Every structure is written in C-alpha cells, then in structure tokens.
Amino acid sequence: MNIKSLLLGSAAALIAVSGARAADAVTVAEPEPAEYVKICDVYGAGYFYIPGTETCLRIGGYVRYDIGLGDVGSFDGAKANDRQDGSDNKTWKKNARFTLKTWTGQETELGTLKTYTETRFNFGNGSGVSGGLVTDNPAVNKTPSLKFAWIQLGGLRVGKDESAFDTFIGYAGSVIQDTIVPYGDFDTNVVQYYFDAGNGFSAVVSLEEGSGTVGTIDSYVPHVVGGVKYKQDWGAITGVVAYDSNYEEVAGKVRLDVKVSDAFSLFGMFGYGNDGKLNDDGTNVIDAHGRGFYKQWGGNWAWWAGGTYKFNEKTAFNLQVSGDDDKNYGVAANVAYTMVPGFTVTAEVDYDHYGNFDSPTIYGNFTKADKKNSVGGILRFQRSF
C-alpha cells in the first residue's frame, strides 16, 4: 500500500465518521398540531370558540359618518360664531363614529352565560347652542362612551344597559331622530330578570340606577321597571310601567306592533305619566317642565306611531310621527338603501313643532325658542360588520 492510497483511505474514513456525527446531531422536532379557530353556530352567525375554552365569541361594530343641516331644533342643524364679526352662523353638524361590540356565550348547568359590550368613539361638532346662546362649535374628539357592558346568566342580567322602559317595549321606529318627542331616558346600571313563559308570553323586572343629575337615584331605593309582552307571528302587544324613586312618580307605555306583510310593518305606542312632583325644582329645566328619568315627554301623555315598508331587499322607507300633551309634535322620514351587504346609506328629513311653553326653554342641548317650527335633514353612511 503506497502513501497515496493510505491518505485517500484515511480521508474517506474521516468524512464518513464526521457525516455520521453530523447526522446524529440534527434533531427534527415533531410539529405541534395547529389549533384552528372553530366556528360556533349555537348563538348565530359570526361566533367562534375562543381557543382552549368552551366560550363562543363574536366581535363586531360599525363605522358611521353623519352629515346634518337645517334648524337646530330638528336635532340635525348646528350654529357657530362667525370668526370675523362674531355673528351667528348656521353650519353643518357632522359626526364620525367608530363602535366596537363584543358578544360571548357559553352553556352552563345554570343556563346560558352571556355578555355584551358596546363602546363608542366620536369625532365631530355639536349643536353650537348652550343656555340659549350660540357658542363656539369646534369639531373635536369626544369622550368615549360605554353604552353596554352586561352579564346575563339564564334570565338574570346585571351591568350597564339601557332602561327596560325602552328596550323591552322597543324603540320608537327605525328613523334616526326618533326622540323629537322623547319617550324615556336610556343609560343606567341594572339588575334585571327576564322570564319567558312560552307561547309568546314574556316579562321583565328591572331595578335601575338611572343617570344624570335628575335621573340618578338619590337613596338606596332604586327605580323599578316592570313589563309584559305577548308576541306572535302577526306582531306583539307590550306594556311597561316605571316607578321613579326620586320623585315617587309612575309612568307607563303600551305598544302594538303589527306585521302586515313581509314587506310592511306598523307600530303605535302611547305613554302616560304623572308630573305633579316633577315640577318641584324650577332651577332644573327637565323637572321644571315635568320631565323625569322615565316621563321625558311634555305633559301627562304622549304618542308615537309609524312603520317600515321594504320596497326590496336593498331599499326601505321608514316613518315616525309623534306628539305630546304640551303640543310638541315631530315627524321623521327616511329612505335607507343598502348599497352592498354591510354598507347602508340613509337620507332623512325631520320636522319639529315646538309646543306651548311660555318661556324660552333649554331642551336637550339647544334652545326651543329659536323657532316654533324646525326642519332639518341628515345623511348617514354606515358600514356594519
């Protein structure tokens, strides 16, 4: 064996050994099974299981842009001080909103455990009227608002909600400005119990905190709302009664919903409430005119009526008319057009007749002394997801 053969053999042996060691050093880990999000269709479309849990989650919301014009009293218009001479100018009332919503659901031995949250973020200007005077009216980022944050187990619901005086009986129509004649306040913390008796009968009892200077309870005694409903394919009959613990007054509403056809539906609602003790504080505009947390309308009684007609899958016409004991009247009508699924454009016209108060009155965030009759309009673009 010569030197050349010996060197070649030694090199081959070294390569074989090093290759074997290199092969032994490489360890390929077994891939972990991927945990894909699973669809949960128990509670409707859009839910999915939170990985590793039995809780179903849905995330949604909308992005909205409103363009309003007209008289301040219609809710749609705005005013501002002229930058050069300080005079009163009419201007656009605009608002952009992002709303984030979450829903959860889970089945337990005590029933369905649910939560719902809704948070709103807004940028825009206001009416530009405060205390009957035109003020500076800049477009700004507004304080985020928590509209809903409640937990429900079976029929028991606790947390931040809107009053059962409005949610159980239903809002006044499908128009944008449905509170030209108001039908109750909204924001409140609640302890509620819903009871479904079957055969279309249901009921609710709600203990509520209220909100605002007038509405928030001033003792350990809560506001109390009770309601009953009978619902069938043709529509529903609903009644609610509210006890305002601050003023020890009672208000109630009854409502009839009728489904004329798949395309045409109607509703009528009537409210009545005591207002004697609500006039005890002339320094506050709301109770100076008999308006508590629940009985927001003027005088003892009020009414709301309207309906929806769907021309086709994309286009609907909505109408609401309303009035109260103080001769305040409102009309709101719109056409809502769904351009593509999830994107709707709504054009609305609103009319407000200011009633028989003897002196200029602050009504919401504007003065009703501006005009006896107010007309405005609003164009809304909304992408819901």
TrEMBL record:
Superkingdom of the source species: Bacteria
Keyword Ion transport among record annotations: yes
Main location: membrane
Membrane topology: Multi-pass membrane protein
Pfam family, one: Porin_2
Locations listed in the record: Cell outer membrane
Family: Belongs to the alphaproteobacteria porin family.
Job description of the protein: Forms passive diffusion pores that allow small molecular weight hydrophilic materials across the outer membrane.
Protein name as it appears in the record: Porin
Taxonomic lineage of the native organism: Bacteria, Pseudomonadati, Pseudomonadota, Alphaproteobacteria, Hyphomicrobiales
